[in-house]
Input
Amino acid sequence: MKNNKSVILGIIIIIIVCIITVGCGFYNALKAKDFKEHFGALGYTISNKVTPKYDSDTYLVASKDDVPFSIEYYEFKDESEAKKIYKKYKDSISDYITSDSNNKETTGAVISKIVAVSDNEYVVISRVKNTLIFIAGTKDYKEEIDKLLDDVKY
Output
């Protein structure tokens, strides 16, 4: 009987670890309305008049005069479209980097994120479900960019 309890407890722990590591269900995609409200409240100007690099259902850009980067938000009709654009950004990351970079990628069931750090640049491509955020900034703004993305769980 005691042995059965140990086996059951072990299985439950394995299931919990698997759920946590793949991010199953713990990520909510940021809706366009929430993106506008959140970054607008931080003093960013939100525009939908900029031409996106890739086609999407919704494309917004948050920018501020006192920072050398903008936050690009894409929303797609489904997750497979977001994955395709994430891959295109990932494959063209060298377009945003002027020297060798250290790239770190994290993937899960509903998320993909790559961070590229070079001598000068700090580039983040983060996908949650059917949305994607792209930021091409400078290394000097790494902490600020990380905090912005942490705040919205990207």
In short: Helices lie at 2-22, 32-41, 79-91, 142-151. Residues 2-22 form the longest helix (21 residues). Strands lie at 45-47, 58-63, 70-75, 102-107, 111-117, 121-128, 131-138. The chain has a mean pLDDT of 89.
